[in-house]
Design goal:
- By secondary structure, the chain is an alpha+beta fold.
- It contains 14 helices and 15 strands.
- Strands 1-12-7-2-3-4-13 form a seven-stranded mixed β-sheet.
- Helix 3 (51-57) packs across helix 12 (291-300), helix 4 packs parallel to helix 11 (269-279) and helix 8 (225-233) packs antiparallel against helix 9.
- The longest helix is centred in the last third of the chain and has 19 residues, at 242-260.
- The chain is globular and about 55 Å long.
């Protein structure tokens, strides 16, 4: 059974198993009183990579001051204790690792302080190399079978349930064999808001499929927020389930990046400001991801283009069943050793360039 512990407002985002009441979180979101619809448990959330802000939004000259104020006033923050269980690690010359989390459900209970943690269903680690030469993003399947400190072997997404955000962070840090320096999460409404603020996104689908009343063709699909959400959530339609969902998420994020760093977006101040205004109220980040910090990282990576962003996946080797009947994904330990060496030595770019998109 999950341990009881004190939970922050951040932990409530991940509630999955307990009934909760609706509530309006406007005052917590810092959105200037803008009206938002109440959401019920069971509505979706999905992480959209913070690199969207790092590489494009805040590195645009003097206009960045206004955009930075939008970010700082709109986004939520969590303390280092809540995010890391102590002090936030400092990069030591081996690049910066940002943990990106999302969940298939979002809680809006009346008493957020009493909320219990749930499972983080979308997990990515973004690596920013020390020389700012590119960005590498590793997807970790939620059913990967790993060691969770104090709880033995479990699915990696159970760490949030067992010990909140700090245990999830430490579990994934142990998995990659390197520190996690920052944490970010986005909820369902922000996912749609970002996509629609961009006027939709062109996404390449590996295969044709239908889900939730939406049909996607093999090849290029122009998706609005609702369509994009259906695209990245789908898994029962595929023979390899969650693994294809990971590939679809990576395809969507590639489309997002292509749109954001396009001249049409970055040369349009109103579009940039609207994107940050609509997006930031749904972001929760650690205390170190202020606009000034993001802007400094963005400046260092100002020459990066979409071709410098590489996606790969954690090394899955097969399927397994636990003693209590859970189906899980086994990890290729030999290949994981290479992943850990890459994070340790700041050579994730070399590993990503040679890695298969999926290992199963």
């Amino acid at each position: 059974m999950p341990e009881s512990h004190n939970h922050s407002d951040f932990d409530s985002i991940f509630l999955e198993d307990e009934p909760v009441d609706e509530r309006d979180l406007d005052s917590r979101r810092g959105d200037g009183g803008r009206t938002r619809k109440k959401r019920k448990t069971g509505r979706n959330v999905l992480i959209v990579v913070l690199v969207l802000v790092l590489l494009a939004v805040l590195g645009i000259g003097v206009y960045a001051f206004y955009v930075a104020n939008l970010w700082d006033s709109g986004s939520q923050g969590v303390t280092d204790e809540e995010a890391f269980g102590g002090d936030r690690p400092d990069p030591e010359g081996t690049g910066t690792n940002i943990l990106l989390l999302g969940s298939d459900t979002r809680a809006e209970g009346d008493d957020l302080e009493d909320a219990r943690g749930s499972r983080s269903d979308t997990i990515m680690v973004m690596h920013l190399p020390e020389d700012s030469s590119g960005v590498q993003i590793m997807s970790i399947p939620r059913d990967a079978w790993v060691e969770v400190e104090g709880h033995g072997q479990a699915k990696i997404n159970a760490a949030m349930s067992y010990g909140g955000l700090s245990l999830a962070t430490s579990t994934i840090s142990d998995f990659i064999g390197a520190p996690i320096h920052h944490v970010a999460v986005i909820d369902f409404e922000g996912f749609q808001a970002l996509t629609d603020s961009l006027g939709g996104v062109d996404v390449e689908s590996e295969q044709a499929f239908s889900v939730d009343g939406h049909t996607f063709d093999e090849g290029t699909n122009h998706l609005n927020g609702e369509e994009a959400l259906a695209f990245v959530r789908a898994r029962k339609q595929f023979a390899d389930g969650d693994l294809q969902r990971v590939r679809n998420q990576q395809a969507f994020l590639t489309g997002i990046m292509n749109e954001i760093i396009s001249a049409d977006t970055l040369s349009n101040p109103n579009k940039v400001a609207g994107m940050v205004r609509d997006f930031s109220p749904y972001m929760t980040v650690d205390s170190g991801l202020s606009a000034s910090k993001i802007a400094s990282m963005a400046f260092g990576m100002r020459d990066i283009r979409s071709g410098d962003i590489e996606f790969f996946s954690a090394p899955v080797s097969g399927l397994g069943t636990s003693s209590d009947g859970q189906s899980y994904l086994t990890i290729d330990e030999g290949e994981l050793g290479k992943v850990r060496d890459a994070f340790k030595n700041d050579t994730v770019d070399e590993y990503a360039a040679a890695a298969e998109s999926q290992h199963l």
